[in-house]
Design brief:
With 222 residues, this protein is of the alpha+beta class. The protein is built from three helices and six strands, in the order ααββββββα.
Length: 222
């Protein structure tokens, strides 16, 4: 007896299969894209901290001054923060004001405060790899101090945007943390999906994270 068999799929079966694939893709693609972007942001942030720190060390070797010996302003012949990075990194553009971070500006306190992009004294350096560094050009003598009180502590602050003007231009926060509260100390902070903006503090020859979330991204090991 001859056995009957089918040589292929019907159109209805193909359409049903494609529909199922489409639904699964729609459910998983956003998570996959966020994870991919987050990994890129994490890598770029670690790179940015590294190259900025290397620039300070190189400047010590070549021009014999670090962040603790800087003066205020952006004058070309001065030993200021602006010239330190201009001379040691591939800067393609500079911009006075708060940069491209939806109004986030560097402020001379323990956080990066939300304010006008045109804040007096703020400068943004655009590097050739797309990273930007925002700081207050009125800052000077950025130091952790002597420890015995003879040289007072003066920490300086800014932020890194790992992809410049590109979105999302969102400050990194701990999971479940509101952006307005990012500067609070958070125990056991985790950052599942890193974003592109990171507050930093800098002094002497050090450039370090300046929030729990920024620390979590740097030291999280992912």
């Amino acid at each position: 007896m001859l056995k009957s068999f089918r040589g292929g799929f019907t159109l209805a079966e193909v359409l049903i299969t494609l529909g199922i694939i489409g639904v699964v893709a729609a459910m998983t693609m956003p998570t996959l894209l966020n994870s991919t972007n987050g990994a890129q942001y994490r890598t770029a942030y670690k790179k940015a901290l590294s190259v900025l720190s290397q620039a300070v060390v190189l400047n010590v070797a070549l021009d014999d001054y670090d962040l603790s010996q800087t003066s205020a302003g952006v004058d070309a012949d001065e030993t200021n923060i602006y010239n330190l990075f201009m001379n040691r990194m591939n800067v393609v553009k500079t911009s006075a004001g708060g940069g491209d971070g939806e109004g986030w500006v560097a402020s001379n306190d323990e956080t990066v405060k939300f304010g006008s992009k045109a804040t007096t004294g703020n400068y943004t350096l655009f590097f050739n790899d797309g990273i930007t560094f925002n700081f207050n050009s009125n800052d000077s003598g950025c130091t952790a101090g002597s420890g015995n009180g003879t040289v007072p502590e003066k920490i300086c602050y800014g932020y890194i945007d790992v992809n410049g003007a590109k979105n999302p231009n969102k400050l990194v926060t701990c999971d479940g943390e509101a952006p307005a509260d990012y500067d609070k100390v958070v125990n056991d902070c985790t950052v599942t999906n890193p974003t592109d903006m990171y507050p930093v503090k800098f002094y002497d020859q050090s450039i370090l994270p300046n929030s729990s979330a920024a620390e979590a991204v740097l030291y999280g090991g992912k």
